[in-house]
Amino acid sequence: STAKKNIVTVNGTANQNVFGGWANDTAEGNEVRVEGGMVKGYAIGATGGANSTVTGNKVTVTGGTVKKNISGGQSSGANGKATGNIVAITNGSTVEGIVNGGHMTGDGTASDNEITISGSTIKQSVNGGYSSASGTVTGNKVTVSDSSTLEGGVYGGYADTAGTVTGNIVNISDGTFQKRVYGGYSDKSGTVTGNKVTITGGTFQDLVYGSAGGDTSGTGTFTVNNNTVTIAGGTFSGNIYGGVSWKLNGTATGNTVNLGDDTHTDLSGTTLTNADIYGGKYSGNGTGTGDYVT
Across the chain, which distance is largest between two alpha carbons, in Å? Predict the structure, then answer.
């Protein structure tokens, strides 16, 4: 089955979950729009069956409230794809659940999904792309601005077990961040490379990572290479890392923290008094080379 270009608009109160589209095979171009209203359940742009393609769907929350999780698009299975889905939360909105741009519940691919948050409050974590298993999470993006408050962690890309997490981006220009910020993260093992965090403003109460992962309880290997954090503004109460492997035999190579950028060369307005800065860090008998602070 296929679901395409369906739109649900909520101006009042929706007491249950709201889906823009649902299909076994392909869900494309569906939308949920919360315009000053409230959704008491989940708000999902589209969801698909096992090994479905869920692409180009969207959830927008404008001055509204969502009590549970938001996902731009959600698929499942080893061959499922959640790609190019969008979540936009603006104008004093509140979300009490988790926000996922693209969500894979199997080992498939979450790619090129995007979350934009402006002047709003998110109570739980934000994931540009998320795999609850060992999927591929690549090219996802989170952008936060305009005095937003994020009470949970922020992840450009997140794999819950042993994923490949590459090329994800977090851009922050303003807001208060109560938990950690990661460009990329894989919980147990896997490969986390080429992810980027760029910060030009905001208040950070916890740690900032270009990428990290490799829980010591997991099997397999963990590699965190060529990730980047650029700091060009903000106030930091915790440490900043280009890349970190917590796995004892992990590898952290070629990770970088840049202090300043082409526009902000003197770091005026940046407070790093309480922050130690590491290009890369690894545990136990791991390997680390070519990690930089510039």
Answer: 57
Query: What is the rounded CA–CA span in Å between residue 154 and residue 181?
Result: 5
Is 140:166 a contact under the CB 8 Å cutoff? no
Hey, what are 42's tokens?
Answer: 């989940």
Residue 39: both structure tokens together:
């959704």
Amino acid at 263: T
pLDDT at 5 over 70: yes
Q: Which residue has the tokens 């061959």?
A: 79
Question: To which residue do tokens 């569906």 refer?
Answer: 30
Distance CA 136, CA 81 (A): 10
Place of tokens 């510039």: 294
Q: Are 242 and 195 in contact (CB under 8 A)?
A: no
CB-CB contact of 130 with 103 (8 Å) = yes
Who contacts 228 (Cβ-Cβ below 8 Å, separation ≥6)? 183, 195, 196, 197, 210, 242, 255, 256, 257, 258
Q: What is the pairing mode between strands 169-172 and 141-145?
A: parallel
Contacts for 265 with CB less than 8 Å, ≥ 6 apart: none
CB atoms within 10 A of CB 157: 38
pLDDT digits (tens, 9 = 90+) for 256-292: 999 998 887 878 889 998 999 998 766 644 565 555 5
